[in-house]
Each structure stands twice: as structure tokens, then as C-alpha cells.
Specification:
Layout (H helix, E strand, L loop, with lengths): L1 H5 L2 H5 L5 H4 L16 E5 L7 H12 L5 E3 L5 H17 L4 H8 L1 E6 L1 H14 L7 E5 L5 H5 L11 H13 L1 E14 L19 E3 L15 E7 L2 E5 H15 L7 H14 L5 H4 L5 H4 L1 E5 L5 E3 L8 E5 L16 H7 L11 E6 L2 H4 L10 E6 L1 E6 L6 E6 L2 E6 L7 E15 L39 H4 L13
Length: about 475
């Protein structure tokens, strides 16, 4: 009975966007009823093996085909610019439907975490007067973003009933704001190869070259290059990123072997063993974070402090959402004693703080599977700075929202600096029982378990921090296969 109601014409009309809004220079149409939940749907048709393509077909059979966009054919920034320009023009010409459509518009994005991050970056950068909230369909390997907001982590059904059920969830979903984070990396490029990306360094798509630097910056000297980007879920460094890098490298070489979510996760676990992540103290005794870099944190504007990293820690995660490595929560919820004694708070997604967690090895990571399990809580911070000098290793591995890379480290007196800073917020759609919690919802405060104002800009922030540049930062180059984002 419920499926018949969802498949009714009245239900489907709630989500449809009229043609004239989607096409430039169209004539205004008279609408018998205004859509209550108009949606723009972006689908990475290469994600999830065949599932992305199947999902595209189903959505287009239910909704106006023009409101369902294949990201392999058109970039989201061009679509959003066109739609919002049309809305603005129709509002100025007195169309009574346009203001309501703009106010109620929502976005659905289907793909992996990389695809979802791309959409979030574009919406953030376009600086829309009424940016639409975003719901994420899990269609990748990790699916941390969808899981954090209650949309699950398993690949969805692609049949008509499954899509209608998801649309119903979107209609009932609540809006949540989440913090966005800016990442800046400065380094001297290798002596061979080009700059963008630095060869042999294959940077993730979310990091791009940026050459304007602050006049007061100590690294503003000849020979250094600056890269910047953004993330919403996490930045990690060390052995966990090494395993991720091995997985992505293998998938790039043999994409035909990675079309099943269960197979992908099994392969990931096997690589964790082969890379020595379960016995890192034996296989990689010099790979601890304390030997690789100095870490500084800022909890209050202008107050940098050294962060003590235990010598046993070989992986460090800077976490924004309570979902990492396929849905695990490394921070957990500190009890009242730890909150008081160590100045720790629950992991809110809109408090302007990143949770910094350390792991010794993969065995240590398995504690996350236990009730109330968590990693080594190191600190919470508004800004984080990693300073790499000549040390015990030639390289380390880093990862941003699922995109890993192999990072060369200084071999002489050079310096590599990675700095993370709070940027702003974006709007997400979430189910009412999702695990992400907000500081503005008292009822969502996590229960007691065992175990600065984010809108203010620091005076020390230079020109390179002023603009996120996410539409360019998250633009996928033409020669990059969309399957690599899944």
C-alpha cells in the first residue's frame, strides 16, 4: 500500500522541476501546483560499477530527465550557475514560482565520497544567496559522508521503488550545517617533472597549485610551491593512508577487479596485511608520526601550541565527521570527567573544531569495533599545522576524504608544511536519527559514555585563505576517469 502511495503522480510531482527553470530563455509555464521538494540530482554514472548507470536511468524515468545530471557529461558548477541564473531572471520578471523553487530546492548526489566532496566544494564556492542542502547516495567503497548523515553505507537499490523510497526520505530529512576545512601545503617540488601535479607526486583532485602567498609568510621564498584545497570529512597521514594508496593504485591498474563493494572491502583488508599495518612496530619502526613531523594546534585565535604525539603513533586522523574508514567513529564520546580534565567535547560537526586521533597500528584500530571504542584522543583544534623537516623517512602517505597520495619529505634543509584551517559551513540533509550531532540542537547532544567563534577570521590569515576556490579546486580534469572518484 505504501509503495502505491509513493508511486502516485501527486507524490512524484513534489520533486519535479519544470522545464522552463532548467533551460535558458524559456517561457514561464503555469504550474497547477508548486513542487514541495524540488530536487536536482547529480549522479556519477561510473560509480558503483554498473549501479551508477542504472540509477541514472531510474531517476530519469521518474523525474524530469533534465533535472537528473550525469556528472560524466556535465560539471555541477555549470548546471548550478545556469539554474540559479534562470531563477534570478524569472524572479526579477515577476514569476511567482521562482522564489519558492529557489527556497525549497534540494540537491541529491550519488557517488563515492570524492564525488560528494566535489559537489560540496562547488556549492561552497558559488556563494549562492540560498545554497541548497545536499543529500548523499552511497555509491562508493567507504561512503563515510552518507553514513554520517543517516543515508547508509551500502550501495542502494536502483529499482523504481528504492528510488521513490529515497525521495520520500529526502522530503522528510532535516537540514544540518557542517564545517568545511581549508588545507594549504607548501613544498619545494622535485627537481624532475612538471608542477601541476608535481611528478612523480600525484596530488588528489582536491589540491591544486596556488601561487599567491601572504607577504608575511615565512615560506614566501623562491622555489616553493603552494597547493590548497578543502575537505569535509577528514585528513589523515601515516600507515592508514599508505594502505589506501596501495588500494587506489591497484584499482587504477586493474579497474575490472573493483566492481563489487564486498570485493573492494576484502581487497582493502588484504592490503592492510601486506603493507604491514597490523605489525607496523616490526615492519616500520621509524614511521611514527613524532619522527616525521612537528604538530602545532590552535584552539584560540593566535595561540599556537605544540601537540605531543606519543612515539607509538603511526597514523593520525584529523576528523570532522563521526565516520571514518567505512563508518567507524575514532573519537567516540568523552565522558564528563575527560571533558573537564582534558578540555574535550563531543564530536559536533558544526563547532569549528577538528578531532585529532592517533593509532598505533591496525590492531589498535580494531578497538573501534567495540562498543564505545575509540582511538588515542590527542586534541581538538581550530587550526592544525604539520611541519616536516629532514628526518627518518623519504616520504609519507596522506589522504583527504578518501583520496590518498605519496608525499615526498625533505632530504636536506627543505621544509614541507601542511596547515588546516576552519573555513565556513555548508548545508547537508540528514535523517532524524543520524549519528552526526549539532551544537545548535540540544536534543542531539550525545549521552555521557565511557570511553572560539568559528565565524571570526584570524588577523594573521593571509590572502591565500580568503577564498576557497572550490569550483576550480574540485573541478575534475577532462582526462580523469570518473570511476577514480568512486
Amino acid at each position: 500500500m505504501a509503495s502505491k502511495v509513493l508511486d502516485s503522480e501527486e507524490f512524484i510531482k513534489q520533486f519535479c522541476i519544470p522545464n522552463y527553470i532548467l533551460q535558458p530563455e524559456s517561457e514561464v509555464e503555469r504550474l497547477p501546483c508548486k513542487p514541495d521538494c524540488p530536487v536536482l540530482v547529480f549522479i556519477n554514472s561510473k560509480s558503483g560499477g554498473q549501479l551508477g548507470g542504472d540509477l541514472l536511468v531510474t531517476y530519469r524515468s521518474i523525474l524530469n530527465a533534465k533535472q537528473v545530471i550525469d556528472l560524466g557529461e556535465e560539471a555541477p558548477d555549470s548546471v548550478l550557475r545556469r539554474v540559479f541564473l534562470n531563477l534570478e531572471n524569472f524572479k526579477n520578471n515577476g514569476d511567482e514560482n521562482a522564489p519558492d523553487l529557489e527556497k525549497k530546492l534540494k540537491i541529491i548526489v550519488a557517488g563515492g565520497d570524492g564525488t560528494a566532496g566535489w559537489l560540496l566544494g562547488v556549492v561552497s564556492d558559488l556563494k549562492l544567496s540560498q545554497p541548497p542542502p545536499i543529500a548523499t547516495v552511497p555509491l562508493g567503497t567507504g561512503n563515510n559522508l552518507p553514513f554520517a548523515f543517516g543515508w547508509g553505507k551500502k550501495n542502494p537499490g536502483t529499482d523504481r521503488n528504492s528510488v521513490l523510497s529515497f525521495l520520500d526520505q529526502v522530503h522528510k530529512a532535516k537540514e544540518m550545517k557542517i564545517d568545511s576545512w581549508h588545507i594549504l601545503m607548501r613544498m619545494r617540488p622535485p627537481k624532475q617533472g612538471s608542477c601541476t601535479p608535481i611528478a612523480p607526486l600525484e596530488l588528489p583532485h582536491s589540491l591544486h597549485a596556488f601561487h599567491r602567498v601572504s607577504s608575511t609568510d615565512a615560506l614566501n621564498v623562491e622555489g616553493y610551491d603552494t597547493f590548497r584545497g578543502g575537505f569535509w570529512n577528514y585528513f589523515s597521514m601515516g600507515m592508514d593512508a599508505q594502505v589506501s594508496y596501495a588500494f587506489h593504485s591497484e584499482r587504477k591498474l586493474h579497474p575490472e577487479k573493483f566492481k563489487n563493494q564486498l570485493v573492494n572491502q576484502t581487497t582493502y583488508a588484504k592490503l592492510g596485511c601486506s603493507q604491514g599495518w597490523f605489525f607496523s612496530s616490526l615492519f616500520h619502526p621509524s614511521r611514527n608520526i613524532a619522527q616525521l613531523c612537528k604538530v602545532k594546534i590552535m584552539k584560540r585565535p593566535g595561540d599556537w601550541q605544540d601537540l605531543h604525539i606519543p612515539h607509538s603513533i603511526r597514523s593520525i586522523v584529523c576528523l570532522n565527521l563521526p565516520s571514518f574508514s567505512g563508518g567507524l567513529n575514532p573519537w567516540g564520546t568523552p565522558n564528563s570527567n575527560k571533558r573537564r580534565d582534558r578540555d574535550l567535547t563531543p564530536p559536533y560537526v558544526d563547532d569549528g573544531l577538528l578531532e585529532i586521533v592517533g593509532f598505533r597500528d591496525a590492531w589498535h584500530g580494531l578497538v573501534l569495533l567495540a562498543p564505545n571504542g575509540h582511538g588515542k584522543r590527542l586534541a581538538q583544534a581550530h587550526r592544525i599545522r604539520f611541519e616536516f623537516h629532514r628526518g627518518a623517512a623519504e616520504h609519507t602517505f596522506m589522504r583527504i576524504d578518501g583520496e590518498p597520495w605519496k608525499q615526498p619529505l625533505p632530504v636536506d634543509d627543505d621544509t614541507v608544511v601542511v596547515e588546516i584551517s576552519h573555513l565556513g559551513q555548508v548545508k547537508m540533509l540528514a535523517t532524524h536519527n543520524c549519528r552526526s550531532k549539532s551544537v545548535v540542537e540540544p536534543s542531539s547532544t550525545p549521552h555521557d559514555v565511557d570511553d572560539g567563534d568559528s565565524d571570526n577570521e584570524d588577523e594573521s590569515v593571509g590572502e591565500e585563505w580568503k577564498k576557497f576556490g572550490a569550483a576550480d579546486t574540485f573541478r575534475i580534469p577532462e582526462d580523469v576517469a570518473m570511476s577514480h572518484l568512486s
